[in-house]
Amino acid sequence: MNFKAVWAIYFFEMTRFFRTIGQSLISPVISTSLYFVVFGTAIGSRIQEVDGISYGAFIVPGLIMLSVMTQSLSNASFGIYFPKFMGTIYELLSSPVNFVEIVLGYVGAAATKALFIGLVILATSALFVDLQIDHPLAMLAFLILTCLSFSLFGFIIGIWAGNFEQLQLIPLLVVTPLVFLGGAFYSISMLPPVWQSVSFFNPVVYLISGFRWSFYGAADVPIGLSLLAISGFTLLCMVIIGLIFKTGYKIKP
Amino acid sequence: MAIVEIRDFEKTYAGGFQALKGVTLDIEEGEILALLGPNGAGKTTLISAVCGLVSPTGGTAKIGGHDVVSDYRAARSLVGLVPQEIALDQFSKVADAVRFTRGLFGLPRDEAHIEDILKKLSLWDKRNERILALSGGMKRRVLIAKALSHSPRVLFLDEPTAGVDVELRRDMWEIVADLKKDGVTIILTTHYIEEAEAIADRIGVINGGALLLVENKDALMARMGKKELQITLREPVTSIPKTLASYALTLSEEGEMITYSFDAQGEATGITALIADLSKAGLKLADLHTKQSSLEEIFVGLVGESAA
User: Which residues neighbour A145 within 8 Å (Cβ) at sequence distance 6 or greater?
Assistant: First the structure.
């Protein structure tokens, strides 16, 4: 294992992040604050409580998940797309590193950034609502697993994408709607029965539900199922990445 | 033992295009080998397949005895690659970019070594500048610095002087000569014949994915090189006198210059007899001048033959 190479990639990616630390942090803080103002105040005045939790507090886990998922995707997809686009990928291919090391470096950095932003949003939320975290370890575990799995997913998108439009396509067209429809801002139990059943086909429901459980002990789906869903997704992404490197898909003709 | 051993190396792309048709080539440690060929000849594919950018579809390549596919870590550790295109993270600082490459090769930080490389390549003053602020020539130097960051024993330079001005090209040649002094084996591709002529020890000519020949540069030029004797006449003539018909002569359009081609390696060049016969024919000479055919002419001849 070439750990120095993993570190070199990780360090390089993190340097890029810290170079634009202002933008990296200000935008999630502002958007979170906006969500609180708009959702918390406007909607919260009509929906007082969900599952016995104030609406403002109820949306915190969903908000964090929304940012963490989109950040993981964009960080990881951009992270590997950029060398492909600039041609600097020649360096990765001609150096003594294997794909596990490449993935560890890029995905590790993308997940770290997303985790960092998730924690900043959590801290920002604490300024607006009274936070309560019943299972802090489970909360962290869910957060980290989500960062990791969506960074892996983002890595796949970055390899697949042939241009900047495609890079945005899946996050915008698939992931954001799934998150909004995945109970980020409401409980699935508030939906009519038909839509409840439909929602259970949305994988994001399991993630948000599990994450919310770690805060308030209440969930739309059993916690075991949530864990299974996220682990399964992580595994699937790993298998796909393995196949990508085995076949050299889009990187090594 | 050759430091690079390439055997029946093949690459057929998914679309069916065969870019390499069984290339076999040995490269000795410490030499400079120039791979010469027109655009699309397979030069870059050959380098890419050896360095790991492209998967070969047949044959083997070994570097320092390590197979580039099955034992890629050991093989690649010995290799530095300077790509044809300027591919750099524009926002990085020069020294960071070089450190990054060294890290990829699994080596610990070594600031003294990086300072040494940057100074050699006249980049030391620019070490804290962002790459986007550098000129094209400086960027090319950064690519070389990165390739040297892990002290490779073999350096592949893919068209190091494509689109580079004359002065910078000379600089590049000096850099290559210095590296050779340090014992680095250098393989460079080029389609500038004068470049190969100026710096290479051996020359390989590649076209259509096949290696047409590899030979010592001087031997190649001597073997293939025809010499020409150009004779300028004091008074122009309309045709070559019949008494000189046995010589291979051509007359210029204005009739003032006669060119005689001969083999410089041959036993008898025929020059003495020709001069005697010229004066017998009553021609007065104004000037004599011999010319060795350049590698370019040899190259055009070779590529033309292979195309025919």
Answer: A230, A231, A234
What ipTM was assigned to the predicted interfaces of this complex?
Answer: 0.87
Judge whether B56 lies within some domain: yes
Closest-CA residue of A relative to B104 is A5
**A7 neighbourhood in chain B, CB within 8 Å:** 103
Inform me whether the pLDDT recorded for B308 exceeds 60: no
Q: Which two tokens stand for residue B58?
A: 């047949």
Q: Is residue B303 part of a domain?
A: no
What does DSSP say about strands A53-54 and B4-12: parallel, antiparallel, or unpaired?
A: unpaired
| Run of H or E including B82 | strand B79-82
Q: Is residue A253 part of a domain?
A: no
Task: For residues B183 and B230, state if they share a domain.
Answer: no
Q: Which domain holds residue A108?
A: 3-247
Report yes or no: A125 and A63 within 8 Å, Cβ to Cβ: yes
Number of domains in chain A: 1
The Cα B51–Cα A89 span in angstroms is 13
The owner of tokens 């019949």 is: B242
Using CA atoms, how far apart are residues B46 and B55, in angstroms rounded to an integer? 10
pLDDT per position as a tens digit, B222-255 = 776 678 888 898 888 888 888 888 888 888 888 8
Q: How far is A140 from chain B (nearest CA, A)?
A: 31
Does residue B209 sit in the same domain as residue B271?
no
User: What is the Cα B214 distance to its own chain's centre?
Assistant: 11
Q: Assess whether B93 and B8 both reside in one domain.
A: yes
The number of domains in chain B is: 2
A247 shares contact with chain B (CB less than 8 Å): no
**pLDDT per position as a tens digit, A205-248:** 888 989 999 998 888 888 888 888 888 989 999 999 999 988 87
